[in-house]
Every structure is written in structure tokens, then in C-alpha cells.
């Protein structure tokens, strides 16, 4: 999983990046807001950690730009400011979580894992891919207007794919997001659930949405290499 850390205090950024890499995350680091924006605009990150007090481009402006480009990526704010009104303002601007400096690295890692388990956040309650509709509030799924009954894990898998149409996910990424834990050596459980999903979401319909990219993983919709 790839994370972006935007933090201008070198010592803090080095320690945070080290703690995250110890958890086997890939971490890109930007030490100013402008560089942070260049990276955020160029790559699709699984999560962004953003300091508010940044040179060249403020954290608040960077938050606004990122959220305008990508409504789904989870954003964790780091700041020395802890006023309630400011927290409310940034949550309304699109932040998903808020950690006040100084903080314990164990808590940071915990917050990151919690946000990643949630997966990309859809600001709209309904995800649509072709004639498929996934309502994240009611957890109801319809295709062509027809209600489709799914188990909780089938729904979680479909929601994860539908939140990122056109993107290919490895079995390990799916395990980490949907099962919330490591199933080392058991990633074939993903194949089993994909088959279940296909039987309900694809088989009764002429247009097939669930795609397999051999040697890579699965996606929904028009997937490169499928």
C-alpha cells in the first residue's frame, strides 16, 4: 500500500516514515505543500498524511486541492493546533481524521490502519459502475434495478472494488482491506469470494463487470490488462 506523507519538519517526517515502513507500507515524503500537491496529483495513494503548517503551499489549501481531485482517498491531518473549531473546519473541508502534535507513533500507526481498513471514502452514498449500484448507507446492491442479496464479506469485497472502478487490486491488498487482517498463504480465499460475487453480480447479466488480470488481481469495470 502506498502512502503520502507531507511534513516539513525533517525529524518528524523521518520518524513517521520509519514507523510506517516498519509496518510494510510504501511511503513517499514531501517536505512542502507544493511538492505534496505534485505527488498527490501524479499518483493514486491509499492514504495521505498531511501537516497543516507547510511552506510554499498551506496544508489547508493542499487539502482543498486534493479533495477536489480525489473525493475518496483517506486524509489524516497532523497539526499542533487543537482548537475544536479548527478541527470542525478541516473535517468539513474533507479530512477523515485528526492527530494533534505531539503524538505517539503507535497511535499514528493505529489511526492509519483504521483509515485503511475503511478503504477509500465515498462522499456520495451510492457507487455506480455501469448498471450496478452499491448503496453504502443501506448496504443494498442493485443491478439493472434488480436487488442482489450478498453476504457481509461479499458486500465488503464488491464495495471495495466499486469504490475504485478501473483499478486492479492484488489479492493481498483485498485481504488487508476486506478481511482486516493478514491471511498469509491463504490469499486463495479472495478467489473463492470473487467466484461467489460473479455468480450473483455477473452471471445473470450479459455485461461482465468483474475483471481478472492474470498474475495481478481483480478489478471492476474497464480494467487495463483484463
* Strands ordered across the widest β-sheet: 2-1-3-4-5
Order of helices and strands: EHEHEHEHEHEEEEHHHEE
The outline comes out as elongated
Q: What is the straight-line distance between the termini?
A: 21 Å
* Largest sheet descriptor: 5 strands, parallel
In helices, the fraction of residues equals: 40-55%
Strand content: 15-25%
Number of helices: 8
Class per helix and strand makeup: alpha/beta
Average pLDDT, all residues: 85
Low-confidence stretches: none
Using the CA coordinates, give the radius of gyration: 19 Å
The count of β-strands is: 11
Description:
The chain is α/β, with parallel strands linked by helices. 41% of the residues lie in helices and 21% in strands. The protein contains 8 helices and 11 strands. The chain has helices at 10-22, 33-42, 59-69, 84-93, 105-118, 152-162, 171-179, 188-202, and strands at residues 2-6, 26-30, 47-51, 75-79, 97-100, 126-129, 132-135, 140-143, 146-148, 210-213, 217-220. The longest helix has 15 residues, at 188-202. The chain is elongated and about 55 Å long. It starts with a strand and ends in a 6-residue tail after the last strand. The model has no long low-confidence stretch (mean pLDDT 85).
Question: Top keywords for this entry?
Answer:
five-stranded parallel sheet, 226 residues, 8 helices, elongated, four-stranded antiparallel sheet, 11 strands, alpha/beta
Short description:
The chain has 226 residues and is α/β, with parallel strands linked by helices. It is 41% helix and 21% strand.
Amino acid at each position: 500500500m502506498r502512502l503520502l506523507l507531507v511534513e516539513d519538519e525533517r525529524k518528524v517526517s523521518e520518524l513517521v516514515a520509519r514507523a510506517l515502513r516498519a509496518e510494510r507500507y510504501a511511503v513517499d515524503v514531501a517536505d512542502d505543500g507544493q511538492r505534496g500537491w505534485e505527488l498527490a496529483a501524479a499518483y493514486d495513494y491509499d492514504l495521505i498524511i498531511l501537516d497543516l503548517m507547510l511552506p510554499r503551499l498551506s496544508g489547508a489549501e493542499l487539502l482543498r486541492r486534493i479533495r477536489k481531485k480525489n473525493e475518496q482517498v483517506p486524509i489524516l491531518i497532523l497539526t499542533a493546533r487543537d482548537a475544536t473549531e479548527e478541527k470542525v473546519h478541516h473535517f468539513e473541508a474533507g479530512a477523515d481524521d485528526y492527530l494533534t502534535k505531539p503524538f505517539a507513533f503507535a497511535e499514528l500507526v493505529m489511526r492509519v490502519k483504521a483509515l485503511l481498513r475503511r478503504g477509500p471514502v465515498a462522499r456520495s452514498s451510492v457507487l455506480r459502475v455501469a448498471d450496478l449500484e452499491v448503496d453504502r448507507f443501506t448496504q443494498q446492491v442493485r443491478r439493472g434495478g434488480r436487488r442482489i442479496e450478498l453476504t457481509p464479506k461479499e458486500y465488503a469485497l464488491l464495495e471495495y472494488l466499486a469504490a475504485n472502478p478501473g483499478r486492479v487490486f492484488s489479492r493481498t491488498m483485498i485481504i488487508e482491506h476486506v478481511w482486516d487482517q493478514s491471511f498469509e498463504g491463504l490469499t486463495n480465499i479472495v478467489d473463492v469470494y470473487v467466484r461467489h460475487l460473479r455468480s450473483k453480480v455477473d452471471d445473470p447479466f450479459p455485461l461482465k463487470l468483474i475483471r481478472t488480470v492474470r498474475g495481478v488481481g481483480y478489478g471492476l469495470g474497464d480494467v487495463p490488462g483484463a
